Amino acid sequence: MARGTAALVGRWLLWVVACLALAGTGLLTAPRLLDLEGRRGVELVGLTPLGLVPAVVLVLVTAALVALHRGGVRLLAAVLALLGLVAGALHVVWLAPLYSGERPVAAGPAIVVMTQNLEYGDADAVVAEVRERHVDVLVLCDLGEQQWAAVQASDLRQELPFVAESDGGAVAYSRYPLTDDAPIRLHGNGRSVRIESSPVGPITLFALHPVQPYRPGVWQEDMATVLEALRGRLDQADGPVVVAGDLNATLDHRPLRSLEKLGFVDAVDAVNGGFQPTFPAAGRERRFGVTVPALVQIDHVLTSRGLVVTAVDRVATRGADHLGVLATIRSGA
């Protein structure tokens, strides 16, 4: 009797786990599949890389339920297992470019580009990272008045003497001369600037911080403006382009997939670096007393044709709520 009760409880627990896994799989698969554009939809698309986990759990648990049941219940479990397999396959396809693919080979001089959202964080820590990692170009985003003042008071100009800025929303510092500084009119912040005399030749840099997707319509306007500006720059055939900043979008969002169709390659993708989320930085967010790990990869360095990323790393700047991204870039096909 006790053994039968234990078996019944075990089956019910498996069904509870299956239902939870099904819900998680649906929430982390359907928004990406349907390109949902409402606020919650955009947020869920950003979490797409996490969806492989509940899909695998769903397959394993429902496979066990198929073995334990007969008749119609067994058929239901089999259908759920099939759904899990399909969802899992989709996630493998979506994740595969981050882990596999041909890595272009490039030699010769390099330029090191770093981007950091510094709404919070220690400006002197940024200077230390620039010095230690031999950064040549630094993009800072989301600087409020106090943070912008701290950056200006730091020794950053001693390391990177050339600067293009307005109010701290999207700032570019460089070891090499900057010309053709032009704002990009976003609800967030953005600018394009020409980097002259770099080791890999002249480069156009887009320093970007589009608005957050809390207002999806405004976010979509910003992303459309970014795409239009980049398409226009590429049409001019005026040399390679680097995009850097907190883009408030992941590679699963339609705007960044459109950017890839223009020929841009994300630095992490280029080196088969895997899933490297940048927000929130470790220890910056807590929910119900638990520290939230980094979940979304919204900070990026991307390169156009003519440039190749040969190394990438995340940077934990003291006090910042985003991880920075550091990319080593060389000339290439």
UniProtKB/TrEMBL annotation:
GO terms for molecular function: catalytic activity. It comes from the Bacteria. Residues 114-322 form the Endonuclease/exonuclease/phosphatase domain. InterPro entries: Endo/exonu/phosph_ase_sf, Endo/exonuclease/phosphatase. Pfam families: Exo_endo_phos (PF03372). The chain crosses the membrane at residues 12-30, 50-68, 75-96. Keywords: Membrane, Transmembrane, Transmembrane helix. This is Membrane protein. It comes from Intrasporangium chromatireducens Q5-1.
